Amino acid sequence: MLIVNNDDFGMYHAINAAVIESIEKGIASSCSLMVPCPWARHAMHLLRERPEIPFGIHLTLFCDTTHYGWGPLTAKEKVPSLLDENGELFTPAQVPELLAQARLDQVEVEFRAQVEVVLGAGLAPTHLDWHCLADGGRADVFDLTVALADEYGLAVRAWLEPARQKLRRRGLPVVDHDFLDSFRLDLGDKQARYAELLRALPPGLTEWAVHPGLGDSESQAIDPGWRVRQTDHDFLTSPQAREILHQERIIVTDYRTLQRRWSQTSAHSPGQPALDTPQAL
Q1: What is the mean pLDDT of the chain?
Q2: Closest by Cα among 187, 184, 109 to 148
Q3: Measured in Å, how far apart are the chain's first and last C-alpha atoms?
Q4: Domains in the chain: how many in total?
Q5: pLDDT for 32-42, tens place per residue?
Q6: Residues in contact with 276: Cβ distance below 8 Å, sequence separation at least 6, in sequence order
Q7: In this structure, what CATH number is given to the domain that contains residue 175?
């Protein structure tokens, strides 16, 4: 089984278009919404028109671009530890600086604001994950996110083995195998590498975080990662990808099943595994 999740939904228009196309015409199964981004309102409109598309909230503490920016949803004076010396969100290249100074109470304020915007728009997310932070980047941020997921009835993406083990001890379902981030694949032979990974997909549940974009002039002007996004979109919507899924009998799934298990388990005390919930799908 494979979750193919389109990250960064809402960042800009060419990503929004590619995300929808990769789900409706390609092999992607879900997406994750970046609520603070300029095109998040458009993305939420697209989701309201397509209630069949499952989506998560891509909790965002970073801004990827210098000439096309966004800030926190929370008033800046309330979350100063999340901002750099210029009073702006850090870039992904500055992960260590953010993690060194971010106060957990201010992270919670911003994360909660992002979740509440989505719920206030009448949408029903399935899970929480993070933009540019593996498992939240810090153990306390991960634990905070799991607590928010329990509160709101959502699942959480767990990437690294320590976090997966922590969730398994609570009886919560997580992926069984290494997590793939498409930004880590070499551009030179990417299509062949994707095909190879699909043909070698192990039994159990795997997740891919992909980042489709159209690669148009807008993308090239504002996004240094546009080639990654264009090549993702090209493969996800290719006949080859769908044919390999058929040949290898791969079931493409999403976080709805995990969310149901998380919701069942959240009725139990934190730290106590649910006796009737399997540790993984």
Answers
A1: 93
A2: 109
A3: 9
A4: 1
A5: 999 999 999 99
A6: 264
A7: 3.20.20.370
